[in-house]
Amino acid sequence: MNWYRGLSFLTLLFLLVSCGGQESSVSPDLVNNPNSAEAGVKTDGLPKMEFVTTEHDFGKITEGVRVSFKFKFKNTGTSPLIISQVKTSCGCTASKFPKTPINPGEENYIELTFDSSHRPGFNRKTATVLANTQPNVVALLLTALVVDK
User: Can you give the chain as a three-state secondary structure string?
Assistant: First the structure.
């Protein structure tokens, strides 16, 4: 019976590790940001990600509903923009983002989807965007008031 418990534990561990989180990413090797924390900030030659907005409030939504918002941005820099990762604060939030470089002057979006199942009350969810920009991290925010069905 002890071997059965060990096999069950290993199976559960495998499932947890193989499922991973709700984050998507591009290889970090593609992101090249020559600035360091100690060096002077030089933005010449770097891409720049300018968002229309970095926050969205869904207002009141019914529990169990999935809602999405597209955070539009433009590369206003002088070199291709590469988003290496969008990490969400919770498994209830998923992200979609471009996996290919965004050239200077081009626009695109990062879509965040919030699943309100089992999330009654006020919700504040963040997504952290990592890119080859300076600064290299941008936070996106979703809020919603989830009410009973």
Answer: CHHHHHHHHHHHHHHHHHHCCCCEECCHHHCCCCCCCCCCCCCCCCCCEEECCCEEEEEEEECCCEEEEEEEEEECCCCCECEEEEEECCCCEEEECCCCCECCCCEEEEEEEEECCCCCEEEEEEEEEEECCCCCEEEEEEEEEEECC
Structural domain of residue 122, as residue ranges? 22-147
Contact present, 96 and 111 (Cβ < 8 Å): yes
Taking only the tens place, the pLDDT of each residue in 1-58 is 454 454 455 454 444 444 444 444 455 545 555 555 555 666 678 999 999 999 999 9
* pLDDT tens string 70-101: 999 999 999 999 999 999 999 999 999 999 99
In a domain, residue 3? The reply is no
Tell me, what CATH number does 85's domain have?
A: 2.60.40.10
> Is 142 within a domain?
yes
Contact 140, 127 (CB under 8 A): yes
Residue 96, both tokens: 């979609």
At 111, is the pLDDT very low, low, confident or very high (cuts 50, 70, 90)? very high
